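SAMPLE LOG
Freezer: B-3
Tube label: C17
Construct: single chain, 255 aa
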Amino acid sequence: MAQQLPVILITGGAQGIGKGIAAYFLDKGWRVVVLDQNTEAINACRQDLRNPENLLLIETDVSRESEVVSAVAEAMEWGERLDAMVNNAGIADPGTGPIETLELAQWQRRIDVNLTGAFLMAKHAVPHLRQSRGCIVNMASTRALQSEPNSEAYAASKGGLIALTHALAISLGPDVRANSISPGWIDVRACQAHAPAEPQPLSTADHNQHPSGRVGIPNDVAAMVAYLVSPEAGFVTGQNFVIDGGMTRKMIYED
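STRUCTURE (predicted):
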């Protein structure tokens, strides 16, 4: 019997960083399950991503447990195994205005999608990950470590995701490893639904403010995911990896 190809499940995988990770793993010969609640983005993925025979797209709101249960079951029926899961789904807009006017519904929606969604995915995928001695990668943010004004809900959800990561690592080890990634500025314009073939170039100042000399791209994050789910990372669990071109290490003072 031919050996089964490994399977990775990516939430929020039809756009942005998630779409970049999906494309990366398809190119590496993995079977990829993409969960996303954006119908337009899912439909665009059917045309944009290569190797569609190794791709399953499921419209899912990860904050709803019934939809998570259904999606995991469909993924397992299709893939017959689960080797890695990337909890990337999230409401990306961090700005919610002054905390005095922040509505509870706005706060709760970000917590529900960005944090509770990762909990629900882990809850229902872990039995399958245990069987494969698989991995979880949670997509946090440098905004869990530093902030701009008026971003309390987003920062709290991403900070909670880092804490959830190390809790999962201790609870699930040694069967399942769990790590998180905190991206900085990643230019995802080419990974949006119906993205222009050639987005307008970023400015020299945009790139040069980074100690690395450039803004990040989705492949920077995807390559870290690939390492974390590989056997080479077998001694790595419970950690948060910052991928931001060095920006969080840069002291910035006004002249």
